[in-house]
Amino acid sequence: MGVLIDGKKLAEKLCEEVKSEAAAMSRRPCLAAVLVGDDPASQIYVRNKERDCLKCGIDSRRYDLAATTSEAELLRLIAALNADDGVDGILVQLPLPEQVSERAVINAIAPEKDVDAFHPINVGRMVTGEGTLMPCTPAGIMDMLHEYGISPDGKHCVIVGRSNIVGRPMGLMLLNADATVTYCHRHTRDLASFTRQADILIVAAGSPRLIRGDMVKDGAAVIDVAMNRDPETGKFFGDVCFDEVEPKAAFITPVPGGVGPMTRARLMKNILAAAKCRAEK
Questions:
Q1: 243 lies in the same domain as 157
Q2: Does the annotation count 49 as an active-site position?
Q3: Is this structure's pTM higher than 0.90?
């Protein structure tokens, strides 16, 4: 039976640290959150981030824009937020309406205020191991590994999924931690032959119950990033068949209560880090 990695408990610990450090600053850190359209899931995500800010002693401003907002209008708002000395972090909730280029929006956010750490400059700094602002989900996973004494050094880490938000930066962070990294994706042939080699298996494919018990070796650490919702029961589950994999794993994350809370806690740490960097200038 594997050790359950309690992301919720660790996230609460990190948020308390952020709250303490934010309280010691001469000015409260501030997040500007931009929501374009009325997607219900995006509204929940932004509302949760506002609550997290309140809990961590961080001010938040919310900008709700119509789904018909043009790319030019959104870029003008971002430019104004970039120039606003009262704003330390800018977050534009994804996905965006089809008339707005996601890449153009990401590139428009000032790197020092890019608390999602999606800007190419922040990605480059992460590659070289010099990043201050790190992608929230991969950074949260690294925190979890450290907290539970799971060192990537010399381990074979297999990542299922190659998105710019999770998979790709996750591999780079593990590489910087001296792991041997293998990426798998939808074109990978014989996926199980790779996942069975993993000392640390990180699954972020968005494919419900993709990883079965016979695809994981005994004693592996298994991190399930996905959050899938059963339309009939309303319950959430991951890309890993928990009941099959948990008896074989040395460590495993639950869904929910694993990676999700850590992603949100890491966003708070990024806002604090951005505020500190700007205060030092």
A1: yes
A2: yes
A3: yes
